[in-house]
């Protein structure tokens, strides 16, 4: 297994993008020693050098180097991956430009949590319902993963929230505070492999009408069933509320960036309509892994979700009651034919969801006259098979294919007359081929080709004003990529070059009132270059200080092809929302006695805010710093003190723009400086002696 020093950038297994924070409660050498990194993408446990996928990893250590305000700063250290927050609680997560589908939410990226599908049948991923402390790690597969993970052209995220040490019992409490009314409290009780975690966070927000509050509780456990079976359970309940301030135009931003969307003579503003999101989500899931023999393993995961959602908006009051069920099952055979090691994985994934949707007039945050009553049922099926073979110990070949089908059934009960319709996306076969060759022990070259299939989400076939957009077609895409990696004791790095072509791309439009709808926008051509490099300047854990410096970056050229808007031909225009150039640099210092310091600099390039390429934002330079002190007080008690700061230099700074916004309301201002501080106290016992 390939090993990396303390500062092997923890946001990577393949990308080597982030630094490591000390997690151990003591100040012993062990807390600063080498750590093994394993890639689990495409159901193959590989080291970073031999994996056939381009993947970024966020571990508990890399997440710990930033404040617990959001995952965004840690996610944004990974080349090609971007997480934004238009206002507190309103997330956007994109991989290689998958954000072109919407200015908010998680679209075209498939999420799994402890092996259980977290993206539902309709394509919705309730990432904002999760408390910051609920997830200990993420593996982010960049590019289509449809050969094994069902529909999607953007990427796949594998989230984990299992105890790092099942032999450790602990009780832990943390409290954080920050500017703009930020407060966070997190409580954890772990008894062996059973963990219960409760998190509360709230803030007033930087802008007017941007307050947020979230309470979330999570339960997880892993138990042996007999000699060959392992049962893992996962449960969570989240109660989320956040105000939605809405976008403003440039003149309003320059006058007062804290403004919420303003009222006009014909349309009220966000504050007047008390625009907000109310979401209660319950999820229960489990997975069972059974060793059928020395070579064969079966894995089964099932889940059920229940969502109570309300959204008083400018033009209506939307109420949704949603239920979902689904599961994933696969068989895996690990064998050997002569000198060739093989890994064959085959299975299926099935999901079903029902969304009962009602729209009312919005009378200052109170539902009034009924507008629509509609039901939408969604069914997805994916059947997949993949074969991986290792030849001559240094050449890995992988080939996979999946069959994917999706269907929507729509019913309108009001306004009368009753109406029903449906839309089926015919089954399509999606392939993936990849090869990895290790050269001179610490270099490797990876080449891959993968296809993707992504039907429109429920929010796209049923826009916010109601109705059924049967005319929308599924997106289809293909990705070709080549990567060169270096793994060593002093220098680690990777450079990747890719070309992604998308057909029938789905993009957002908005009318005068801000109600959204979606259209297919022809073809796109998306070319990108990603890189990362890390240098262990001082890596001996016996030194007084360990130092690593690192850099990651992305250069892109994403353009529309064969795209017309009314009578205007926009072919060749740059796709809005995607910077041509961005980079992140960092310096990580780990001292003895539990002290650590991290400094990160990020440059984000400018990009266009509309398809016509007539309006552009300004670039920004972001500095973040964090210091922490971790200390053990005897064998059981431990503590951590931390402080974080953030400073931005930019003409216009937004953590998420409204692309192609009606009335040029593109801007959602974010603060240009911020401060946080936190304290953690814990008690542990019966710790593993290793």
Give the helices and strands, then pairings.
Blueprint: E1 3-4, E2 35-36, E3 55-58, H1 60-63, H2 72-75, E4 81-87, E5 90-95, E6 105-106, E7 109-113, E8 116-117, E9 137-142, H3 146-149, E10 155-160, E11 169-178, E12 183-191, E13 194-203, E14 212-225, E15 229-243, H4 250-255, E16 276-291, E17 296-312, E18 317-337, E19 340-363, E20 366-391, E21 395-414, E22 419-439, E23 443-454, H5 458-461, E24 475-486, E25 491-503, E26 506-510, E27 516-520, E28 523-538, E29 545-561, E30 564-565, E31 568-569, E32 581-591, E33 595-604, E34 620-633, E35 637-650, E36 673-685
Parallel strand pairs: 5-6, 7-10
Antiparallel strand pairs: 1-2, 3-9, 4-5, 7-8, 9-10, 11-12, 11-36, 12-13, 13-14, 14-15, 15-16, 16-17, 17-18, 18-19, 19-20, 20-21, 21-22, 22-23, 23-24, 24-25, 25-28, 26-27, 28-29, 29-32, 30-31, 32-33, 33-34, 34-35, 35-36
Distance between the termini: 19 Å
CATH topology: Maltoporin, Chain A
Helix percent band: under 10%
Largest sheet: 22 strands, antiparallel, barrel
**Given the helix and strand composition, which structural class is it?**
mainly beta
* Number of separate domains: 1
Mean pLDDT: 89
The residue ranges in which pLDDT falls below 50 over 5 or more consecutive positions are 1-34
Q: At CATH's second level, what is the architecture?
A: Beta Barrel
Oligomer: single chain
Instruction: Give the strand tally.
Output: 36
- Give the overall form: globular
> CATH homologous superfamily, by name?
TonB-dependent receptor, beta-barrel domain
Report the C-alpha radius of gyration, rounded. 24 Å
Query: What's the CATH C level?
Result: Mainly Beta
